[in-house]
Specification:
With 163 residues, this protein is α+β, with helices and mostly antiparallel strands. It is built from 3 helices and 16 strands. The strands form 5 sheets. Strands 8-7-16-11-12 form a 5-stranded mixed beta sheet, with helices on one face. Strands 1-2-5-6 form a 4-stranded antiparallel beta sheet. It has a 3-stranded antiparallel beta sheet with strand order 9-14-15, with no helix packed on it. It is globular and about 50 Å long.
Length: 163
């Protein structure tokens, strides 16, 4: 579905069974891509170990020789970075929209996020902000298993609560 304004696309969005899916693309007033938001069902790769970012542990593997990825950004605290830098969209505040967005991603062997997508969204504006915050989070020291840098797949819950 394309939305248009002044002959330029504003956004391109796809739905399946009334749920957002695929690549959603937002355009600026010149028709250039401003932002792209990706909705995917669980896209864990077979060769990537699952990591619980909240507990700091790997799932379903022997963790004796595992060193969790370490956030290298501000305060070296990933949750703190999200809490301080997240912007609760005005539209969501005004309309009482709240909930938890689940962002799935891989922290690769270089400590960078890759394959960022929304696993379970709440509303387009909260999903877009969640995607943005993960894209701007910076890097990690990569995870290590048995002395080797590895990729880890993780799901990051981002909570939006009105007070």
């Amino acid at each position: 579905m394309f939305n248009k304004k002044n002959d330029f696309p504003v956004s391109k969005k796809f739905y399946k069974d009334n749920q957002p899916t695929g690549d959603w693309i937002y355009f600026d007033e010149k028709g250039e891509i401003e932002f792209d938001l990706i909705y995917r069902k669980n896209s864990k790769q077979e060769d990537v170990i699952e990591y619980d970012i909240q507990s700091g542990k790997i799932i379903g593997e022997n963790s004796d020789n595992f060193v969790a990825p370490k956030y290298l950004g501000e305060n070296e605290n990933f949750q703190w970075f999200i809490a301080v830098n997240i912007n609760y969209p005005d539209f969501a505040k005004e309309n009482g929209i709240q909930g938890t967005v689940y962002v799935q991603t891989i922290i690769n062997e270089n400590g960078k996020f890759e394959n960022i997508s929304i696993l379970k969204g709440v509303h387009e504006v909260l999903d877009k902000e969640s995607f943005r915050i993960i894209k701007t989070a910076g890097e990690f020291e990569p995870a290590i298993l048995n002395g080797q840098k590895i990729k880890v797949y993780t799901i990051i819950p981002i909570r939006f609560v009105l007070r």
